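Service request form, structural biology core

Requester: graduate student, group of Dr. S.
Request type: structure prediction, single chain
Budget code: on file
Notes: please return the result as structure tokens.

Sequence provided:
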Amino acid sequence: MLPNPFARPIDRRQLLLLAGGAIAAAGFAPAILRPAQAAEPTHTLTPGPGRARMVGAEYPETTVWAYDGRVPGPEIRVRQGDRLRVAVTNRLAEETTVHWHGVRVPNAMDGVPHMPRPPIAPGETFTYEFDAVDAGTFWYHPHIRSHEQVGRGLAGALIVEEREPIRVDRDVTWMLGDWRLKNDASISDDFGNMMDLSHNGRVGNTVTINGRVLDEVPVRAGERIRLRLVNAANARIFGLRLQGLRPQVVAIDGHPVEPHEPADGRVVLAPAMRIDLVIDMIGAPSDRVTVVDDFYRGLAYRLVDLAYGAERLRDRPLEAPIGLPANPVPEPDLSGAVRHEVTLGGGMMGMMAGAMVDGKMTDMRTMMRSGMAWAINGVAASGPDGHGGGHVMDPIFTLERGRTCVIAMANDTAWHHPMHLHGHTFRVLSRNSQPTRFREWQDTVLLAPRERVEVAFVADNPGDWMFHCHILEHQVAGMMSTIRVT
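Core staff response, request fulfilled:
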């Protein structure tokens, strides 16, 4: 049997030699859909089977599930304040939805099955309609059997441009993907196996930028780039170092933050998170900058090189400001906040003996036999995006509309969990009782093992809203719940 080139995190140079040479850096030019009319933009998306050339000419194309036949799906770009109407026609052989991750949409447009709308059946069309109230980097993906539908390729970027964007030479999106490929470059069918469900999730063996393994991306000496990073992986956490550069973080999860260099020079991006960087390319013509992902100890690899061409655009960095205007997110009133405690439990090497499943106390061994391994506040959820079909979960707590809520989260497990709240944006107040430096606005916050995090938000969007781990295998295996706003 031939050795499997996909058996470990890829050495990009080795893989591209196997693949017959460097792949052109098309990752800097994703397909873009723009509104035909600024007042009423209309878009269409068609999820269905497709083929993608991910790893080079010497390997077959990979059979994927894709929006409009593309991996990632078309990048939708609109302006802040635009009205979106996106008609989604399902060409899959199973139900699907589209969730607009991080966008503060009305409850009926959130794309969670049966909360409150049913999913889109095969052959049917549904039109999502909402306003782009916040500028920033967002994305879209299914929210039914998402551990497989996303894992097979269904994801795309939604970029809401500021009315007055900051000055850069290029505005670039990188959708970071993570795939578990076999020798013939096909996707492994082992979705939802208990090892992934109960451990770190489905971490793959091939990482792509905009759907391709890239050897290099061209840059110009002296240019300023706004790089929008989107982690569309099921479970992989990225820790990116741009060696020799000093990137400035200007937005997290779409929302502005005081510009700053990332801690320890590493950009940490959990599944579903987005980070906007402003990068001044300070190298000389013909230089190369290596981007390394070293989040997992002992498993560092080279993601891609930034390759300077012969041209020098300017001799010194731009002096234009890079701070972004604030979005209209209501500020939490901590003096009158209601407080709720949330405890994350379960998984291998955890201390959880069992949890409530469908209203019955169930021991851990029985849970795992039915594909369950995680719980929030002692409850392992079985729907609507997991094992429960159309069952809608009872909320873990109910909030009065307009009230400020503080959620104190405790990760009592041995694994990382990026916790995502639908329909709202929260401030991250503290980590392990220490105030955060930037009080970031986020919709997905990463908790390390045994870490405590406090967030606060105004419950201003009525409905039942999913609150779950965005390691998709953890979600489907029980780490999901809902929060009700009345």
